[in-house]
Amino acid sequence: MKILVVEDDLSIAMGIEYSLGQEGYEVKVCGNVAEGKAYIENEVVDLCLLDLTLPDGSGYELCKVAKENRDIPVIFLTACDDEVNVVMGLDMGADDYVTKPFRIRELISRIKSVLRRHNKTDSTKAIFNYNNIRINTLEAKVYKNNKEVQLTALEYRLLLTFITHEGQALSRNQLLEGIWDIAGDFVNDNTVTVYIKRLRDKLEDDPGNPTFITTIRGIGYKVGR
Predict the structure, then answer these.
(1) Are residues 132 and 216 in the same domain?
(2) Residues 6 or more apart from 90 whose CB is under 8 A from it?
(3) What are the pLDDT digits (tens) for 84-93?
(4) Which of the 8 DSSP states describes residue 97?
């Protein structure tokens, strides 16, 4: 789980980085709007912690980028606890705010709460679109170029595992867990390889050079940015 911290106070940023690292999060620290914007646009981020006042602009600017990029959850870190600033941030789509000075345990609790809410919302989305691929989870149907693609139950469950973890690199064990209740003892490491190949054959324009289900060397596979 990757968290972006945009904070120009180095002592605060380093304290957050250390504490979140102890909790198992991967943390990237940026000190201004320009660095934060570039990182959001080029990397997969699971949550942003944004200082409101930055040397080259405002955390509001980064919130807008985060929400337009992939609806990334945002928590503001602000010394301003007046109603106007709080309401403005929440109206822009921020998921929460924490007023400085804060206790690190409170911040971690807020992070976990926001991630739970966000993941629950994502998992209940009805329609997923990826270029020429559309997945309707209410109808359990998959389309490529507006033509329905027939998937087996195991293929569809594997695809659901990917799209409910959009942008996240999933290991073979995580993928096995996602399809275990359908195939039980019949699934193994080779099963994942076979069914990923089948999905690629059905959904990729060029299965030999996949752009939808991509391989992350040494880790596993992912769908999306």
Answers:
(1) yes
(2) 97
(3) 676 777 777 7
(4) E
Range of the domain at 31: 2-123
Distances, alpha carbon 121 to alpha carbons 11, 85, 114, 164, in Å: 34, 26, 11, 10
What are the pLDDT digits (tens) for 28-73? 999 999 999 999 998 889 999 999 989 999 999 999 999 886 778 9
Phi and psi torsions of 42, nearest 5°: -120, -5
Give CA separation, 114 vs 49, 97, 118, 175, in Å: 11, 10, 6, 24
DSSP string, 29-67: EESSHHHHHHHHHHS--SEEEEESEETTEEHHHHHHHHH
CA separation for the pair 166, 73 (Å, rounded):
14
Count: domains in the chain = 2
Residues linked to residue 44 through DSSP beta bridges, in sequence order: none
Angular region, 93: left φ>0, alpha ψ -120 to 50, beta rest: left
65, amino acid identity: V
Alpha helices in 76-183 (DSSP H): 83-91, 104-123, 153-163, 172-183
| pLDDT one-digit tens code per residue, 160-201 | 888 888 788 888 888 887 665 444 444 566 778 888 999 999
Secondary element (H or E) of residue 195: helix 189-203
The residue among 74, 91, 123 that closes a domain is 123
Alpha carbon distances (Å) from 94 to 22, 72, 76, 123, 173? 25, 9, 7, 19, 33
Rounded to an integer, what distance in angstroms lies between the CA atom of residue 57 and that of residue 62?
9
Task: Read off the pLDDT of each residue in 106-123 and give the average, rounded to a whole number.
Answer: 78
Whole-number pLDDT of residue 119: 67
Q: Within this chain, do residues 47 and 119 fall inside the same structural domain, yes or no?
A: yes
